[in-house]
Amino acid sequence: KQKTAYEMQRGLVGSEMCIRDRYQRRVHGIQGFQMEGFAYILAGDIGGTNARFALKKVSKVNHEKRELIFEDKISTSSHPTFEATLKAFLAKFKDTEKYPTHACIGVAGPKRGNMLKVTNAPWPEFDIEKLKIEMKFVELIILNDFEANGYGVLAMQPGMYTEVNKVAPVAGKPKICIGTGTGLGEAILTQDPSKGQYVVYPGEGGHVDFAARNQIELGLLEHVRKKIKGLDHISYERCCCGLSIPLMYDFLHSISKEPDTPFHGTIKVRLEELLKILAVDPDENSITQRVDELDRMIFNAGLDKTDPICVQSVELFANLYGSETGNLALKILPYGGIYLLSTITQVLKKHILTEKTFIENFLAKGRMKGLLEKMPLIIVDAEIGILGAEEYVVRLIHQQSYIFT
Fold first, then answer.
1. Residues 199 and 168 sit within 8 Å (Cβ to Cβ)
2. For the residues 96-122, what does the mean pLDDT come to?
3. CB of 363 within 8 A of CB of 373?
4. Residue 366, exposed/middle/buried by CB under 10 A (0-12, 13-18, 19+)?
5. Is the confidence at residue 228, as pLDDT, over 60?
6. What is the model's pTM?
7. What is the CA radius of gyration of the chain?
C-alpha cells in the first residue's frame, strides 16, 4: 500500500504496526475508549518566559486516539518554582479521574543527575525524582528541548510546516533537525525497525569547530575570538546563533566604509554592555532577553533593507546557517527530511524561500551537491515542543499497554 506523506512524516512505515493494531483489536474487541482502556497524560514545554501544558485523554491501544481535556500557558514569573507552576495547572484535577498518571515535559536546561535548572526561567533547580513522587505520577519524563522538538516533527500535521525545495521524504530514511536561536541545536532521527517508529537522538553538533571558508568568515572568527574574552574554542554555534548576530553587525561595520550612525551607535553600546556581563559571568543565558532585542533590531532593518550593514548581516547569517545545515546533512544523508526549527528560522523564513543565500550555501559542497538536491528541506512553522512531549509519552503508554494487556 502506498504511504501518504502524512504517514511518512510520522514514521509509520512497514507493516508491523498495522498488523499489531489489527491483532489487538481482534483479540480485545476494541471499539472505543470504554472498551480499550485509556489514560490521562500531561505534556509540557517550558521556555524562559512561558510554561505550556496540555492534559489529554489517550487510548492505551490506538495511539492516534487522543482527546484534549485542558491546556494553558502560564507565565514563569507567576509562581516561585517549577513545582508550584505545575501544581497550579493541575489544581482543578487533583483527586479526580482526570489527574494524569504519566507526564512528559520538554525543557531547555542542564541536568545534574536528578537535578534540573530551567534555562532563563526565574526558578531554582528542582529534583525530578522527588517531583515525580510528590505529584504522584507513574512516570515523569524530562526531555531536552531539542529532543522534544524532534518527536514533535514526527507528530506534525499538514499546515504546521512549509516545504522549501518540494522534494518528497523517503519513507524509513533518517531525518535531521537543526535550529539556531540562543544556541545551535541539532538532532538525528532514525527508524527502529523492530517498532516501525523513529527514535530521536539529540546531539551537540553546534559545538563543532567553525571552519571559515573565505576571508569574511575568517575575519568573523577572529572578531568573535577578540570580543568574547577567554575563548579557547570557536564553534559553529559561536558564529551562528543569537549572540553572533550583533557580533556580525559589529564586524561587518568595522570593515565597511559606511559612516557611523545613531543606529550603529546603539548596537555598539548595547553589545559592549553584553560582553562586559559575559566577561564576569560566562553563562550566556543571563543575557538572552537583551540579545533577542538586538537580534530583532538588526534583522528587521536587514530584511526591510533600511540599513546596509544589517542587510549584509542577514546575508552572512543565512550563509552560515545554510552551510552548517548542509554539513550535518552530508554526515547523516537524511532523505527522510531536513527540518529547520526555531524563532530565528521563522524570522528568516521569507528570506530562505525567496533569496538564494541559504539554499546556495546548503548545496555548496562540491561534488556532493547532487546528493543534497535530493534531500527534502522543510521549515517548521508551529511550536512543536509540547507536541513532541505528547508524542513521547503516548508512545510510552502505548508500549506499556502491549506489555501488560
1. no
2. 87
3. yes
4. exposed
5. yes
6. 0.84
7. 23
